[in-house]
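Field: COMPLEX_INPUT
Field: COMPONENT_COUNT = two
Field: RESIDUE_TOTAL = 918
Field: MODE = joint
Values follow.
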Amino acid sequence: MKRDHIKELLTLKEEKEAFICGWIRTNRAQAQFGFLNVNDGSTLQNIQVVYDNKLANFLEVSKFRTGVSVSILGKVVLTPNNKQPLEIHASEITMLGDCGEDYPIQPKRHTREFLREYAHLRPRTNLFNAVFRIRSVAAMAVHTYFQSRGYLYVHTPLITCADCEGSDQMFKITTLDMNHLPLDENKHVDFSKDLFGKQAWITGSGQLQGETFAMAFADIYTFGPTFRTENSNTQTHANEFWMIEPEMAFCDLEGLMDIEEEMLKFVIKYVLDNAKAEIEFCDQFVEKGLISKLEAILNSKFVRISHHDVVDILKKAPVKWEFAPTYEDDISKEHERYITEYFNGPVFITNWPKEIKAWYMKVNDDNKTVAAVDLVVPHAGELMGGSQREENLDKLLERMKELNVSKDGIDWYLDTRRYGGCVHSGFGMGFERLIMYLTGVENIRDVIPFPRTPKNCEY
Amino acid sequence: MKRDHIKELLTLKEEKEAFICGWIRTNRAQAQFGFLNVNDGSTLQNIQVVYDNKLANFLEVSKFRTGVSVSILGKVVLTPNNKQPLEIHASEITMLGDCGEDYPIQPKRHTREFLREYAHLRPRTNLFNAVFRIRSVAAMAVHTYFQSRGYLYVHTPLITCADCEGSDQMFKITTLDMNHLPLDENKHVDFSKDLFGKQAWITGSGQLQGETFAMAFADIYTFGPTFRTENSNTQTHANEFWMIEPEMAFCDLEGLMDIEEEMLKFVIKYVLDNAKAEIEFCDQFVEKGLISKLEAILNSKFVRISHHDVVDILKKAPVKWEFAPTYEDDISKEHERYITEYFNGPVFITNWPKEIKAWYMKVNDDNKTVAAVDLVVPHAGELMGGSQREENLDKLLERMKELNVSKDGIDWYLDTRRYGGCVHSGFGMGFERLIMYLTGVENIRDVIPFPRTPKNCEY
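Field: COMPLEX_OUTPUT
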């Protein structure tokens, strides 16, 4: 028999026979009858199931523990005067799988730290059920935004032999026996014996390959896992996370900001529409005012202001800064917070000092700044970072020389400037950062199904 | 000025002013006028642009080479009596980026082997433009199928410290300096000094973690990159590829086949509808009859037959086999080919001998076979592989013991059987295999943007 999804049953306006499968969240049994709260994962919301001693197995059912999986046949009955709009009157309840008494996920409050020790069971709690549903819906929102606008989704490679990104930030990969590494005549590891015939890494970005595809499809995006070796135990760092990297030909810095703003609003709207119960849960239990915060973004026009002018505002601010703002340096978390409060909304900070930004960014005519942009949002700081790319080959080569970026292994990338190059721009968005923003959850470990952080690689 | 997409212009039914940006595919210049074929990546199809000596820069334009990027202002003029239904009469043509004379992608036939040496430029050819558009559209089809049915998209981790899959098939990853590895007292590598405090790999499957999420959300899927160290240079092997792994609670083998069949038909239909020009190109230039092949799948009812009965048919077949079919062994490519021709359509082969299948599969009552299923399709062989999982903890532990699968590091997985387990099933589909099937392209290197194979890790 095909099972009904609780998410659909909860929208019923008339009574009907239903068949559900799910897991018992609570069981309140009395002498003659009882109530089950059942969740089937289709929505955060449970359905209430009423059963009584007309069931042949009433005594057994009344002892079913939290976590037991069951199938239930019964009638959906509208109960407009009760707390929940409907319930199921069960005619048959069958245990599908028992649940041990030592089940760690009991119907009580567990700390997030405790639940991190049970990453394989925590999706069965309300919080993680909500967070991972929002994560899934947000991923679909990203794909829908780009695909409906004709962007090409490109799977850039993760394995790379070009260490232009700074190989110290990348994981090395090998098929060699690490206890018996082959050595060359200089007693160095002989990577010619490795699978790819040379040293290989797992990359932290698909941007360069993405740019080559933008020179064929104009509008492309990547969306995949990314790796950093950073040995950093903070609330916002993980060694494996997902990233979105769109790249657009014929698009300058202003066009880039248009797209970033439109995309963020689209994703927020999509999640509010398609994960309503889950967002409401987060609004109630994770970040009070979450929905207002997100709706405010939808209705705002993002400010666009240069790094220079931001520093002017910071310098004039009646604030004693921990880090004094300067025209040459990055801005700190406290500055980001002040500037989003100052404008009471998201702020695009543009035209950064070239010394603190990457080699492929377009140098502005002042020869001091680059056409880069960071989007900072209230409560979360930086959400996206992007730039117009230097499309002029000579200028790009000059910058590479200045910054000691080797041409070895990326000459193919320079072909994008040799053969029909054009103004183009792109940005990167850390997907977890977005999910933290959408849910109000403050620790990146709580928005990744099985987080990987230093000294922590379980499951 | 916002650029128009050629894909949309080509559907125009009335004339209008247009502004496009794109790349010149060909330029046929005569004394007084000329024709450009321009592609902007929004579709495989080019638009024809007519220009004449009223342009101030007519002489320069007439010398623009293949590959040059241009912006063009002009009027879309309907030409119902010509080969193409419309063309642009240019009033302004501007070079955005020149293209060297040595541009490798000239308007002539290049072999696929040649183009593999230019993976960063080959998306600018018709073939790869079509293939990678189909790949992108097919990825969206997969997400749309699952999300519209309430499945949760889960990002299972790629980094793992559990080597239950057979660590010899996985890449090792490390942050240690491989030329100066720290050693422990036994002169083995001291992985306690590595980032995760122990040895780590890049995994080849998210199934086990996926199962834990299926026990919370019922219906889930993964879609992400996957890695194998196989040192194999064939048309169908790559060391990095993408895989889809759905997992459904409350779903048995029959239910699994229903989903596989429905999903495949959905994806084919979606691609036929949303990548029409690209599929037509493949039908004409890659695999004659491709569209008929795909439409036949849509209209077929997939056969369901046991491995035992397949072997019966093979044994009776009037064929001299290279590999004699037996009830105990896997079936070979020649057998797959015969059986799909025999039934003239896709075939689900079920209930395989347990000795040749994985430890987590449900052992049938005969204690000889497992509830596994492979889907084989005409012309392509195996497209999906899946099984009902052994949900009974004791039986699962027994199988693990028989097959020497260590419990170390996967006790968390066994919790899915301890706490509210249930009948559940899942399958894996190699995404590249699907794209090869959808395009008719026969070498996996030609459906991956930047393929990684032994001794081959460029870009």
